[in-house]
Amino acid sequence: MTILHPAYTILFVMLILFSFQEVYGNSEKKSSLSVWLVGIVMIVLAGLRGNVGADYPVYRTFYNLYFPTIDYSELIDKMLLRKNDLEIEWMYVMLNKFVFAFGGPFQTFTIVSACISIGIKLWTFRKDSAYPVFSALILLIPGYFIADSGHMRQALGMSICILSYQFIKERKLGWFLLCLYVAYGFHKSAIIFMPAYWLVTIPMNSKRIFYAVIACIILSPFQIYNLFAGFLGSLNLQDVSNGYNGYIGYEDKASSFMDGIMILNAFLLVMYDKEACQRVWYYEYIRNIMVMGVCLYFIFRDNPVFSTRLVGVYVGFGALLIPNIIYGMEKVNMRRFWHFFFVSFMIFYYFVFAQYQGKAGRFTPETYTNFLWNY
């Protein structure tokens, strides 16, 4: 039986125990200590990893050899959307060059990247989730491993999109667009989040959610995304090397598993919409974003790259949605049942991930290394 490295396993157990404290506790006050304790562990394990995660060697080479040769004028041209030959997003290169200018090795950049991407998500969970640590538990597999500990460009872009949710709530379009611009500078796929500012205001209810999901499931075999092949191809979702291919292979084979997760999300959205709307502030906004994610997943289902990475920023809001739905349930026993259900599911997912993506990403005991204890 394959397991993840003991450090990850300890983190996983911590998240489960703290989530029980949140759901079963009598206090309405959120614990900042538990959130930032697990946050520090997550940042250390992701930020100080060595040769772990997809494309790590390639990005390390780029950091040391390629990015220092790029002139700032090229980045400004890219930033102003002028024609240029630079393939990698300007904001990601800029952050690399900024860290490199202080003479830090590549792990200095990975720790900075982890602080930004993980810190923003945990700050958002602390602010907008009824159960912040429970949100972190749901994020852990697979988002934390594949994005924050692997595809750093997309992790940074997605985190800025999640940050933009604050301006969606406050209806500050200018600040929202600025966030999207920065997120796009980290990863082009962030542009798909642009409609979110207006989507959140669309009136929805259980019936509309049900019909929308069913319609997208029916449309799935027709591959209607091919109508937008030119635009989608311009996003260049494939990473700079073949490191991502190992993940894609497993995700493609396990599409039925992802189907089940999306159907479960849709079930919760339909069944508990009214209760959550009554008890959770701005739940309707999170709900609409997640409905969009589920619908896009089924539309892109036959393309393993689009269905996992292009819709990732929408589906990532599941870490906010699920805890808030559970909090919104009136009956305490029902709340505890669903919490126990998702904890059990995450334990099952732990072993599935360890067996497949865990090996490919070097997160297992025999492959994971960290600069705190291996160098």
UniProtKB/TrEMBL annotation:
The chain crosses the membrane at residues 6-24, 33-52, 98-123, 130-147, 173-197, 209-234, 254-272, 284-300, 306-325, 337-356. The keyword Magnesium does not apply. The keyword Cell cycle does not apply. Keywords: Membrane, Transmembrane, Transmembrane helix. Pfam families: EpsG. This is EpsG family protein. It comes from Epilithonimonas lactis.
